[in-house]
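Might I ask for a little of your time on a matter of protein folding? Here, with my thanks, is the record as I have it:
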Amino acid sequence: MLTQALLVDDSRSVLNFLKRHIEAEGLVEATTFLDPVEALTCARGRVFDLVLVDYEMPHMDGISFIRVFRTLPGCADIPIAMITSRQTDDLKMEALQAGATDFLPKAPQSVEMTVRLRNLIQLGAAVRKLNDRAAHLASEVAAATRKLGEREEEIILRLALAVEYRDNDTGEHTLRVAHYSRIIAEQLGLPARLCRDIYLAAPLHDVGKVAIPDNILLKPGRLTDEEMAVIRTHAAIGERILADSGCELIQLGAQIAAGHHERWDGAGYPSGLKPNRFRSPRAWSRSPTSSTP
């Protein structure tokens, strides 16, 4: 792929010379502009690897051009050389502070220009390769992060499935609570990401039932007070099962397991929390219309 160069100079003869010079070895494709404003407009929608800009131009001088160019997305590291016959220290300092990488003398057939230009082309190609590599790595990290998130979600679903195998009534109840939880979270105005996380973690709310004896959990008739006391321990047990996880979704599941039988009037269990004592909307995932213990 050819190195893409942006050439900006109000002199057509200088532009033509620069274009021939920079494209001579077949490694660069140059785009030229007489107007710096038009050049900036082009740069907003196109990626360049190297910029050569004149200092003295109408409408906008080279230093002002560089300042604006550096603010464009993806243009912070692109090599920029300012072409000028003025080589004062003050001018160089101002250009460097604006973001110039180097300076080119405005002298045709200059050996110095040839050498500096070759170095700039190599630098532009190197920066592009580095940026391409960084973009590739960012893409790989994003893909790995998505895969990790999918695995976390799978773990949660499989934990919830384990509870379903113990309690025939839990399957639809688990899905219903997940949907109700998301609806309530959205109505509370919680961030979209948190609403999604609550939906994913809510199926873990009854995971503590794995510790409840079958003769109580599966009893077809009405529970005695003693049996109800046992089954009510599943909230605290669920929290202990899920506590101290390195996975944020499972941490959220621990909060939900602990708080899913609390009620806004303080009549819930295990802690009898009242509204001003709830840790956050995360702690209340259970719909008040749900009817299972």
In short: The chain has eleven helices and five strands.
